[in-house]
Design goal:
The complex is a heterodimer of chains A (150) and B (787).
Chain A: E1 2-3, H1 11-14, E2 20-25, E3 31-36, E4 39-43, E5 46-51, H2 55-63, E6 66-73, E7 78-90, H3 94-110, E8 120-132
Antiparallel strand pairs in A: 1-8, 2-3, 2-6, 4-5, 5-8, 6-7, 7-8
Chain B: H1 11-31, H2 37-52, E1 57-62, E2 68-75, E3 85-87, H3 91-99, E4 103-105, H4 108-124, E5 145-153, E6 156-165, H5 173-241, H6 251-264, E7 270-273, H7 280-291, E8 297-301, H8 302-314, H9 322-333, E9 338-342, H10 349-361, E10 377-382, H11 395-402, E11 405-407, H12 418-433, E12 439-440, H13 442-450, H14 456-470, E13 475-476, H15 480-486, E14 488-489, E15 492-500, E16 504-511, E17 517-523, H16 530-549, E18 558-563, E19 569-574, E20 578-580, H17 581-588, H18 593-612, E21 615-616, E22 625-630, E23 633-639, E24 646-647, H19 670-673, H20 681-697, H21 707-716, H22 732-741, H23 753-761, H24 771-781
Parallel strand pairs in B: 7-10, 7-11, 8-9, 9-10, 12-13
Antiparallel strand pairs in B: 1-2, 1-6, 2-3, 4-5, 5-6, 14-15, 15-16, 16-17, 17-19, 18-19, 20-22, 21-24, 22-23
Chain lengths: 150, 787
């Protein structure tokens, strides 16, 4: 079932801390997959992703605003696929501050303050939401320096 | 937990919310009912238990360095986190403190695992330099969910409140809101508790400071008291040298203090001469105090000593003379010190001799040189000048004492000191009787400053002590009544000094009840004690009674007489407005002969009556012929000063020195010089002629540089007629009469005052001296003197 809004039941999935897979595509059609730690809930029609260090992904999104994010719902034994469209990048404001605090709290405890830095909060419009009744596994592309294979 | 409230909630949800509300209400009451930080934390943490049924919470407060948070209360941890510290900016709590915003994390374990994986990858990729050390933070090691809320007071961070759970996704929006409410309560309560604690500490510090200050004040006060005692001792020591009567800055008292300073360096006997009450004892004290003599200051009343002497003389059985024994005892007591012989002139000749022997030999009499005295400074006082010895004086002692003398001035001669003296006596007496006196009113002060003070400083002190005693105000008022109490003779109060001379002083006085003005003459005498004095008193009384019996309108009227407290005889006479002939001539020059004759005739009438009573004036001179106005009569002359009158032919003890010529040398008859002649009224006629010549010429009959020369001229030299020494016309007839009066031999003079008056009546003038001329003269020359 495809939805055009983020349902309430997806919020625990967004905050469950399980890295998600994000798929983008360059202007010439070359795809790229990367792992992101968290998708932030903005409202029913928007989600935010942290712009930290995955430069290939960012470059792709700037060239082609469409992206897919796959979320693992371990407690529900399901997967969620979000089709998103990049709208804007914020470097201040409530969304940016909240995301930055999250990242900095974790980074400061793990000695990663110098690396985990929120450069911007990228706001995406939700184009579709689809819940899949099975877990889905993803891998990261090799050309993304900072992405990590899971 | 994250679901928004529904419009139609189920009953269990309502129960839950009601319970939460009640819990929040109670926590609000509990948390604000105490100012103890531990209790506040306990309430806050217990509330978390009740609300969420979990057991992990921390309260952290900002350390004074502003960079660190310290766990002050902790609940539910296996290892108590209390005392643990978090750097600002580190971990959830540190970031919340840094951003001052609440942070809710529901996937902490996953986030940390992800970050740890990133860290490993970063390390593998050779970027170790950019990776820091992992920093442990106090709290639950396996925490998955956490809400940290900054505790803010007016946007100022005071700490962080944090709750944790090992279960992911524990805290939703509802929990966040509840924790925010509790956190606000915590912040407010902690702030109040801190304010209270600050004030308590401030109060304690203040109390401690007060105690310290009190201790310092007490210490300082004790030190000041010590300094004050030292200062008072120094002041007392200083004042002992300028005590009471010696205060002031007048020329007289400065000279006196200089004399004291000089005398303090000497050990010679010292004689203090001054009127009664002038402060001679204080001067003696000052000399002793300044001298540095280590012995005592011994006061000896010579009057008392003399009384004992008389009693001892009557007691033939006395084995030892108590008077000399007492004197010797006093001198022994004064060893290395000073003996002060008050009123030394009161001592009999015998005692004077004893004293002299002691002073010269420095041994007490009757001790057979068994105990030699140490050095004793002898200071004696007297009210008369011992340089002029009288009968009964032991001359060696007098000469010894008089060789080193200091005159103590009268109070009227140092009026400038009255202010300082008043201040001193008032303060001293007020302190003695426990009264508070701020000072003397300006009117009273003026009254004190112009008053005559015949009793000198003693009278001033008495008046002030009485005023202080009677005063009901802090400002002293001294009226005339109090001054009346000060010094009086008989029924008269002395007001001001009119003049003084060799015989004594003349004072303006007022009758206490009648307020009638009068002139009081205080007469010094030379016989001071014993039978001679008693004889003198009797004689003075008899002479005064005779004088008082004189009725001539040209004789000054005698109201009263007696002996005052100071031992002086006094006459109270009518007070006259006008001028004596001495002043008239001194101020206005020689007078016309017709006026002089009129004066002489009036004087003759006065003398005639006195001579008829057997009294000789003995001191007729211009100053004793007083010209006044009697009703409408101008130039009314009165003969003054019968104080030295003497019965004719009597040469016994008189009020003046019997061995000295009496009267004033320029106007004295030869018979005063030539002792072989008896003195009768014709001596007064000689003096009257001398006076007439002086008024006519403004020159004395003879010119002489010394009194003795003058007396010799009277005895031997024939005077020049006044017409030869005056440019004013002098009728020959008048001149002949005067020259007759100036005969050396009384037998060649007019036989009586009445005869002389008769002869003067026959003198003719071109223009008579009339009442009209007299009035015009007074109006032109001295209208104020004949009101």
């Amino acid at each position: 079932m495809r939805l055009t809004r983020l349902p309430p039941e997806i919020r625990p999935v967004l905050e469950n801390g399980i890295p998600a897979a994000m798929v983008t595509c360059s202007a010439d059609g070359t795809p790229n997959t990367t792992i992101i730690s968290q998708v932030y809930y903005v409202d029913e029609t928007h989600a935010a992703l942290s712009f930290q260090f995955f430069s290939k992904t960012i470059r792709n999104v700037r060239e082609n605003p469409r992206a897919f994010v796959c979320l693992a719902d371990l407690s529900g034994h399901a997967s969620w696929v979000l089709q998103l469209e990049f709208q804007r990048s914020e470097t201040e404001g409530v969304i940016f501050d909240t995301m930055e605090m999250h990242i900095e709290a974790i980074a400061s405890m793990t000695g990663m303050s110098g690396i985990f830095k929120l450069r911007a909060a990228d706001i995406y419009r939700v184009l579709s939401v689809e819940k899949l009744p099975y877990p889905m596994w993803t891998g990261a592309s090799s050309d993304d320096q900072s992405s990590t294979s899971a | 937990m994250t679901n928004p409230p529904q419009a139609h909630e189920d009953p269990s949800e309502l129960v839950r919310k009601t319970t939460e509300f009640q819990i929040l209400q109670r926590v609000s009451a509990d948390i604000n009912s105490t100012l103890d930080l531990d209790e506040i934390c306990d309430v806050a943490l217990r509330t978390m238990d009740e609300l969420f049924e979990f057991h992990h919470a921390n309260i952290l407060l900002l350390e004074p360095d502003g960079q660190t948070l310290k766990v002050v209360a902790s609940r539910g941890y296996e290892n108590q986190a209390t005392g643990g510290r978090v750097q600002i900016g580190t971990g959830v709590i540190g970031v919340v403190a840094q951003k001052r915003k609440m942070l809710r994390v529901n996937n902490l374990g996953q986030q940390r695992a992800y970050a740890a994986a990133q860290r490993r990858e970063t390390m593998k990729s050779g970027l170790q330099a950019s990776v820091g050390e992992a920093v442990p933070v106090p709290g639950l090691a396996n925490a998955e969910s956490q809400i940290a809320i900054p505790l803010l007071i007016r946007d100022e961070l005071i700490g962080v409140f944090s709750i944790e759970s090992p279960v992911p996704l524990t805290f939703g929006d509802h929990e966040r809101d509840l924790v925010s409410i509790v956190a606000n309560q915590i912040a407010s309560a902690i702030h109040n508790a801190r304010l209270y604690e600050d004030r308590r500490r401030a109060a304690a510090a203040l109390q401690e400071a007060n105690a310290s200050l009190e201790a310092r004040v007490a210490e300082r006060t004790a030190a000041l008291e010590r300094e004050l005692r030292v200062a008072q001792a120094l002041l007392s020591e200083a004042r002992s040298r300028v005590e009471g009567p010696l205060l002031g800055d007048s020329t007289a008292v400065r000279a006196l203090r200089d004399a004291i300073a000089r005398q303090a360096l000497s050990t010679d006997p010292l004689l203090l001469i001054g009127p009664p009450g002038s402060g001679k004892e204080a001067v003696a004290h000052a000399v002793h105090g300044t001298s540095g003599r280590t012995g005592a200051f011994i006061f000896v009343s010579c009057s008392e000593l003399q009384t004992q002497h008389r009693h001892a003389a009557a007691d033939a059985t006395a084995s030892r003379r108590p008077d000399t024994f007492l004197l010797a005892s006093k001198l022994e007591l004064a060893s290395s010190g000073t003996v002060f012989l008050d009123a030394v002139h009161e001592l009999s000749t015998e005692l004077q001799r004893s004293l002299y022997e002691m002073m010269v030999s420095n041994d007490p009499p009757g001790t057979a040189r068994e105990s030699r005295l140490g050095d004793v400074r002898v200071i004696a006082s007297t009210t008369r000048d011992l340089r002029e010895p009288v009968a009964g004086d032991f001359l060696p002692l007098i000469r010894l004492l008089a060789s080193n003398r200091v005159n103590v001035p009268r109070l009227v001669d140092r009026r400038d000191d009255i202010l300082a003296l008043v201040d001193y006596f008032v303060r001293r007496h007020a302190r003695q009787i426990g009264k508070v006196i701020d000072g003397v009113s300006p009117d009273s002060m003026r009254r004190l400053e112009v008053y005559a003070w015949p009793g000198n400083i003693r009278e001033l002190r008495t008046v002030l002590e009485r005023a202080v005693l009677l005063s009901r105000s802090t400002v002293l008022e001294i009226d005339d009544e109090l001054l009346d109490e000060g010094f009086a003779v008989g029924s008269y109060r002395l007001v001001s000094l009119l003049g003084s001379g060799g015989m004594g002083e003349v004072w303006l006085a007022k009758h206490r009840l009648l307020a009638r003005p009068a002139a009081v003459k205080l007469i010094r005498h030379d016989v001071t004690s014993g039978a001679a004095r008693e004889q003198l008193v009797r004689r003075f009384q008899r002479e005064a009674q005779v004088t008082a019996s004189l009725r001539s309108p040209h004789t000054v009227q005698l109201y009263d007489f007696g002996v005052n407290d100071g031992g002086s005889f006094y006459y109270v006479m009518e007070f006259l407005d006008g001028l004596d002939l001495h002043r008239i001539v001194t101020r206005f020059g020689p007078q016309p002969a017709e006026r002089v004759v009129m004066f002489l005739r009036q004087a003759c009438r006065s003398l005639a009556e006195a001579h008829e009573h057997g009294l000789v004036h003995r001191d007729i001179k211009p100053a004793n012929l007083f010209v006044t106005r009697l009703g409408t009569e101008y130039d009314h002359l009165k003969v003054l000063d019968f104080g030295v009158v003497k019965e004719s032919g009597d040469d016994a003890t008189s009020l003046t020195n019997p061995d000295m010529a009496q009267g004033t040398p320029a106007f004295m008859a030869p018979e005063f010089v030539l002792a072989d002649r008896l003195i009768d009224g014709r001596a007064d006629l000689y003096s009257l002629a001398c006076t007439a010549c002086w008024v006519l010429t403004a020159q004395t009959l003879f010119e002489a540089s010394t009194p003795a020369q003058m007396l010799l001229h009277h005895a031997q030299t024939r005077p020049l007629p006044p017409s030869q020494r005056s440019e004013l016309p002098i009728p020959k007839q008048l001149e002949a009469i005067l020259m007759k009066c100036l005969e050396k031999d009384p037998a060649n003079r007019p036989h009586s005052a009445l005869e002389l008056e008769s002869e003067l009546t026959g003198v003719r003038f071109a223009e008579a001296w009339t009442m009209k001329r007299a009035r015009e003269w007074w109006e032109a020359h001295s209208p104020d003197d004949v009101r």
